[in-house]
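Chain A, query sequence.
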Amino acid sequence: MDQHADQPGPPSPPEGDFAPAPPAQVDRLELVSPSLWTRGMTTAAVMLVVAGLWFSDFILAVFQAQQVSWQIWAMVLGPPLAFAAYLGWRWWDKPAESRAIVFEDERVLLPVSSNSKRTVELAYGDVKGVLAMTRGRSESVLVDTGSKTLGYADGEFERPDGTMLLRQELFRRIHQLPNASEVLAGMRERQKLARIATSKKATVTKALLGILAVYFGVELWMGVSEDPFGLIELGANAPALIDQGQYFRLISANFLHQGWMHIILNGIALLFLGTAVEKLVGSWRMLLIYLLGALGGSLGSYLAGPGMVSVGSSTAIFGLFGAFLALHVRYWKSLPPPFRQSVAWWVVIIGINAGLPVVVPIIDYAAHGAGFVVGGVAAWLLVLPMKDLKPDHRPSMITRGITVLMSAVFVAGLVQAAVYAFETHPQDEAQVFGSMLDEALESESAPEQVNFIAWSTAIDPDASREQLEEARRAVEKVVDEQDDRLEIRDTLATLNYRLARKLSGDRRLELIDEAIDIERAVFREATPTSGLMGDGKVTFASQLARFLSYRREIAGPIIEDNVFAEPPTLRFDPSDDGSMVIRAPGGAASTSVAIYASARVEGKVRGLVLTCLEAGKEEATIDNHDALAKWPNNLRLVTGLVEPVDTCDTELQFWPMSPEIQKLP
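Chain A, predicted structure.
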């Protein structure tokens, strides 16, 4: 063609391809050798690896946990299994030999791609469009069959002029048809529409992407991008607070995102859908659809959403998704490439988005569904007066007036959210957190949901006392019914420990002693496969070590039944013969005792030691203990707990501090 499709062009195409073609004839255009590993597979593999590295801690925890719901397994195993299925599909669809575009007398045989054995048989009179595209230095041709669009790039042909020859030969054969003028007229109209649409700039889409980036930058600056309660301060959608009249959250929540993965995925979706819709219906209509979808999705989340806190622009993006579908339904016969998507594409995309909330419970299906419906209805009403799609059709005064009004409402909501963010509202966070736990307690998967929320709170260094107490209240209810779940009991012990560090006096001592009792029992029952973060024994031993260390700091060690007036001492000297000496300063006890001690290096807890002193002995020596031999000379063993036991295992046991537990507050 005289001008490429994604460059600005006149409203109607030049004669170029539509003029009578030269008599030269091509019967066959060879494509390059097929490859199993396509560019799409490379993209999918990179995304899978990045996601695996991003969520590596979570994935490892799932594989090491005792009990995991099927939804969690689906979240972890779904992506690699889907990639394996995609690989199997590619292997099945890969042709045994090179493909070719074959021009027959009345039809053309078009391979779906050089890497596919599927072929589309298309009569020349049924060709709806042939559109040239430029991507950087690469030329490509889009062939519109009426039901799908086939694309061929320069690199897919054996000949360097393959795209030009394909285009010329198709037009040459169309010119020979008895109804050539009618076919060419239809192609000319569709190509004119494609040129108008592709030449338009997606100004609003880029502006919205910029606004989302600014908001996410604010989240990063404030350190709340992955903190649900920090996002509440910035205006997250929280039904408990909207019920109190904080309606601005229905607006501000659409501009917030929880973490890098969330903003990246929504940004990509907005770039694709926003650009397509804006180019097809114009900037005014696209902006109105976006705002209506955002508000509709927020209302859906507020009225029927599964969570107590939700954020994300997916409300508006699903509005654009619904609008894109409405345009396909309304203008199916005339929608030009590269905008038209096949029926198979729509079935797959809608199926994935409908099924994801079942597998990933944190997805706000109500927000997505409401945004989709509102966006689709809005787009249908906006283009209803246009019998034919006209991307350059100026919107009516009513449409522009409603868009301005909606924009003003959104600006007012964002201003109100900004004012709220500069104030402190601890009672709001406490209310949302309580509602969140109550909702989790009533769910079918209450143990998993409550434990997830409570553990996230227990390891949050900024968690307030009120949040810790609410989490403890909920976990206690779950433990009463699920006392065999070691990880839930460990969460309860951790919450007691965190609360003890925020209190003083008798209540503090009561909480830390309760934490130690719970963790000691969990530690005894644990096996190497029962932990959430690695070896179960190491996980729970590390927890017990830090609890005992804190108890020693505030009130000394625990000596049960007063078997000793003074705690036994443990001394290990790797520079000598690698032996450890246990000594009871107050004299021998009448019963054997188990001794739990924290191993410290430079004041930091580095592990848990468990040993035993037999009845009637004031001193015992354990020779050549290899587990401690690698530790530096300044290793100190500090007794934290002494308990009477019926039988005494004098063999010393040592569990090094888990790196994950060592990072916890």
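DSSP finds 23 helices and 15 strands in the chain. The mean pLDDT is 85.
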